[in-house]
Amino acid sequence: xxxxxxxxxxxxxxxxxxxxxxxxxxxxxxxxxxxxxxxxxxxxxxxxxxxxxxxxxxxxxxxxxxxxxxxxxxxxxxxxxxxxxxxxxxxxxxxxxxxxxxxxxxxxxxxxxxxxxxxxxxxxxxxxxxxxxxxxxxxxxxxxxxxxxxxxxxxxxxxxxxxxxxxxxxxxxxxxxxxxxxxxxxxxxxxxxxxxxxxxxxxxxxxxxxxxxxxxxxxxxxxxxxxxxxxxxxxxxxxxxxxxxxxxxxxxxxxxxxxxxxxxxxxxxxxxxxxxxxxxxxxxxxxxxxxxxxxxxxxxxxxxxxxxxxxxxxxxxxxxxxxxxxx
Length: 327
What we know:
With 327 residues, the chain is α+β, with helices and mostly antiparallel strands. The protein has 3 domains: 16-117, 3-Layer(aba) Sandwich (Rossmann fold), CATH 3.40.50; 124-133 and 199-293, ATP-grasp fold, B domain (D-amino Acid Aminotransferase, Chain A, domain 1); 142-195, Dna Ligase, domain 1 (2-Layer Sandwich), CATH 3.30.1490. Helix content is 27%, strand content 29%. It has helices at 38-52, 101-113, 120-127, 129-135, 148-158, 255-267, 307-326, and strands spanning 16-22, 56-62, 66-67, 70-77, 82-89, 92-95, 116-117, 143-145, 161-165, 175-177, 191-195, 201-202, 207-208, 212-218, 221-229, 244-247, 275-283, 286-293. The protein has a 5-stranded antiparallel β-sheet, with helices on both faces. Strands 2-1-6-7 form a 4-stranded parallel β-sheet. Strands 8-11-9-10 form a 4-stranded antiparallel β-sheet. A hairpin with a 4-residue loop joins strand 12 (201-202) and strand 13 (207-208). Helix 2 (101-113) runs antiparallel to helix 3. The longest helix is centred in the C-terminal third of the chain and has 20 residues, at 307-326.
């Protein structure tokens, strides 16, 4: 059916239905499967089967296909292949699409119409790096809007600085600047400058050089952790930018890191269900929060990932999605 005509409805009416929604062109309706990468199709087919065991069905689509509590069109895994469905009434949205001020308004509409994971306020705090800094200034490297004056001052104080999109993830468009010759910011409201942290490594975890330590939290429970280590000749540790992963048992996570995570969890205790990560660099034994992420990629079919580690985390996310659908 994946190559045939779309059906009007794709799930058992006795089940709740949640849409997993991505950004522009990540999911395309003119092909037989939602994603370009086969491993991603495999992982979200597995999410669907996990959730179905709990009375929740899943459709996958792009956020622009959403309208007033319904999906105009979407993909659904039927147990054997991906099929196309249309005009599907939803019971909730799992937000996996990129965030900015315009999309905040859409997410707020989703929240009022059917419910969304994460709450738009959580997404805004995590995805707006300037807002993250203002909430946790004592734990995050100094962060400002990337005006020319701010970058000049940061370079005078630290010798280096980091330019990042104010909104965004996956390590896109992040760069180190060492002089004003590198400054090319067109809109300082959409770019931040952050003081450079020289993270020499974590001896107790046998890590040398640049890194970050990601802690996964689901419904106030720390469920997993791993290191992200840059590729050769890079300072970007994001796996999407060529970094590698090293899984870390929670018993090996430094106590100071877990203490910082608890403070973030305390700030978000009024939101449920909730899924996010807290990313750290550690310099001279002191953990600094790099950023929060309300859309962590948790799956195991992709390159460099482990079923043994990530499948239990997927089950925790299934619990949160189930809570959304039945709330």
